[in-house]
Amino acid sequence: MINVTKSYLPDLDEYTNYLKGIWERVHLTNDGPLLRELEEKMREFLGVKHLKFCTNGTIVLQMALKAMDITKEVITTPFSYVATTNALLWEGCTPVFADIRPDDYNIDPDKIESLITENTQAIMATHVYGNACRIEQIQAIAEKHNLKVIYDAAHTFGASYNGRSILSYGDVSTCSFHATKVFHTVEGGCIVTDDDALAEKLQFYRSFGHRNDDYYSIGINAKNSEFHAAMGLCVLPKVPALIAARKQVFSWYDSRLNTERITRPALTPGVDYNYAYYPVVFDSESTLLRVVDALKAQDIVPRRYFFPSLNTLPFSVGHQPCPVSEDVSLRVLCLPLYPSLEEEDVDRIAAIVNEIVSVLSEPV
Q1: 12-237 fold
Q2: Would you name the residues annotated as active-site residues?
Q3: CATH: 3.90.1150.10, 2.60.40.10, 3.50.50.60, 3.40.570.10. Which one for 238-361?
Q4: Is the C or the N end of the chain the one with fewer CB within 10 Å?
């Protein structure tokens, strides 16, 4: 079976060498030496000032909202994984959805300003598929209206914009290190900021608000373990090679798919991409469903990612029309992409897709 992704696993001996140290120290969690080492190496790799390694990519969004005292309206994207909206709702915020650009599917800055009210406190945008938002436009709007900017940068590890890690932008950026990501720690995530005071607050929030027996603030348990840090230390040095391998698979798709029959998101100028996903957009949902059925019949499992448009969630705050997102979310499909995917498998996937779209596009 070919799944939409396949997690990279390092050499088992390399991982077990770290485990031997954990067994010797019997320091399993609570800001252990491997966690501190991983944080430092990630800061160096990304070129960022403060980075906190946490349990997952959702809790760091919640921590960002809490740390900046954001409790009211947040302008956000309807085209993202549900965690983006869930974090807002969980923290008692009101998501206000701005529609997406029709070319790159990131939040449309031209749609943001008209949604700002006296209750707006922040903009939470997602760098979709690891492709940077229109960062300068969003920042200019935020500064004009005194808003915070939080980036859900779950897909961006290893990607850069204008020579800087995409994670270095915004008041806060967050990332996911789930097993499906370009860089992973099995489960995990991080929160990044340049703000010294905010970083200190996040440090306390991550660990119940205390250091030893001294209590400074509220907090939760967002700590990660030495076992997860060990996986990260194994995977991190391989990231450039993993991205290069993903780029090769990406190029195979590009050269084989019938791009006259499908649409691909445009890359934002200035982005050095990490090839996190390979999304394609069909002419209709019915075509997409035919492709999904044909692929699954061959034990190939793509993913409708992102679906549905988050402004249509039944538990969100009323329906706010976002026609571009609602349309794209019905027609977008992520094809299998991972470093070890074979060229012959890409040939087979592309042939299935091309056959379906060609037949359905033939004149009657």
Answers
A1: Aspartate Aminotransferase; domain 2 (3.40.640)
A2: 181
A3: 3.90.1150.10
A4: C
Mean pLDDT of 273-282: 98
Encoded amino acid at 329, one letter: S
Q: Taking the CB of residue 98, how many other CB atoms lie within 10 A of it?
A: 24
Find how far residue 166's CA is from the centre of its chain.
11
Terminal CA-to-CA distance of the chain, rounded, Å? 35
The mean pLDDT of 265-293, rounded to a whole number, is 97
Domain residue ranges in the chain: 12-237, 238-361
pLDDT exceeds cutoff 80 at 362: no
Each residue's pLDDT tens digit, 322-335: 999 999 999 999 99
pLDDT score of 364: 35
**pTM, to two decimals:** 0.96
Cβ within 8 Å of residue 179, ≥6 positions away:
7, 186, 187
User: Which of 107, 180, 103, 200 is CA-nearest to residue 95?
Assistant: 107
Ramachandran category for residue 108: left, alpha or beta (phi over 0 → left; psi -120 to 50 → alpha): beta
The answer to whether the CB of 290 falls within 8 A of the CB of 356 is yes
